[in-house]
Design goal:
globular; 16% strand; alpha+beta; 4-stranded mixed sheet; single chain; 115 residues
């Protein structure tokens, strides 16, 4: 088993995800969204499962600074914005094989490790 974590080092929930998997000796591939944005294809997987609203942190400073609170865009446009502006994403985004989770979701992670 190997997991891929998309997040930032400054995000407390991302650090919790890293710690969860490290304590269970699960190999981690960490993608720092401040250095390298997630691809549209990668984000599309999460959007297909959870929907656009689940991935967007509407309370984030970046979301508000960009004036997106009043925006009504198509799914493709939101994917483009999320790829260009990772500061509006709920983190961590965690992927393990076919398993996906958004935010701090320890129950899902335990299911992956136990299964």
């Amino acid at each position: 088993m190997k997991v891929q974590i998309f997040g930032t080092r400054s995000c407390q929930d991302t650090r919790k995800a890293e710690r969860f998997f490290k304590e269970r000796r699960v190999p981690i591939h960490f993608v720092d969204l401040k250095r390298k944005a997630a691809s549209r294809g990668e984000l599309r997987r999460f959007v297909q499962k959870f929907g656009t609203d689940a991935l967007i942190d509407r309370d984030s400073r970046r979301f508000l600074n960009l004036g997106l609170h009043a925006a009504h865009h198509s799914e493709d446009r939101w994917l483009e914005i999320m790829s260009e502006e990772p500061g509006i994403l709920v983190t961590p985004l965690v992927r393990s094989a076919n398993g996906l989770s958004v935010g701090h979701d320890e129950d899902a992670w335990k299911g992956w490790v136990d299964g």
